[in-house]
Amino acid sequence: MIRLSKRLAQAAIILFAATGTAQALEGTAPAGPIGGTDLNQALLPQPGLYPFLVGGGVDLSRYRLGGGDDVRGDGHVGFGAVGALFVYPQTLFGGQLASSFGAGKQRVCYSAGPAPESCSEGAMDIYTDLLLWSKFSPSKAFADQPRDRAFPIPYGTAFMLGLGVTWPTGEYSSSDPVNVGSNFFTISPTMAVTHTAPSIFGAGPGRATQVSARLFYNHYTENGDTDYNTGNTVSLDFSASEIVGPWQFGVAGTGWTQIADDKIDGNSNGLRGSAMNLGLIAQYSFTVANRPAFIKAKYLWMVEGEYIPQSEGLTVSMGFKF
Prior knowledge:
mainly beta, FApF
């Protein structure tokens, strides 16, 4: 539903190869809701306002270069954010409509090769889902479950389309090697699908298996302070989980790759970043004053990557209906 930005080092990091030649690569990363998306990605809740909180920390280590090479590195990221999802009472072509907003504060420190550690702290880039459209097609199992169930299981298939924008509101200085903000806009058309069926481990009351994925196409505008244009990326958030009563738990991941070279002053530098992170996720649903709420924790490890720091970290989020 909500997610934290995947940017771990959101600005230029100077790399020193074995030859001592410096390569400049701005902090490439896919955009998206702060906290990342994972469970129930194509589903929207009932109409209303859903505030959320999200935060966590990430450890950074060696900087992965192309071809399996790397440079010694060390750093960390800490973040906290607030936001909200608003689901409109109106429908369109049988689907629900929604918009989201997320803003936060981040501190990132990193050193690569012989370079000293650099830090940046301040406001993050704001992310908004300008509009989401979700259509849910329930299965027979959805209608057959008890009507008085506190947390009905969304048996069936949901499909979602949307358009997101990352706004360059974060802390940024072109003279700093590490920045919290990006200093450019990111336009992100997106589509998602979520399928929930009776548990593959044996059907039973309050049990289900879910697979969910959300695809983003990220287009970056030019950084006017550096004349640097990041190559577009394609990213995919995914999860496979089990629902048991109020609990939902399983594996989650995110992968992204650049599909075009970065350009400086209109000239390609031949560098393309990519990453794959996998991990575990668990969510607990409950009620507060008879209003639905949840708390969720996710831990991801980077298993593959190029032109990005090695990372692993925890994200914790919670939300409720206002």
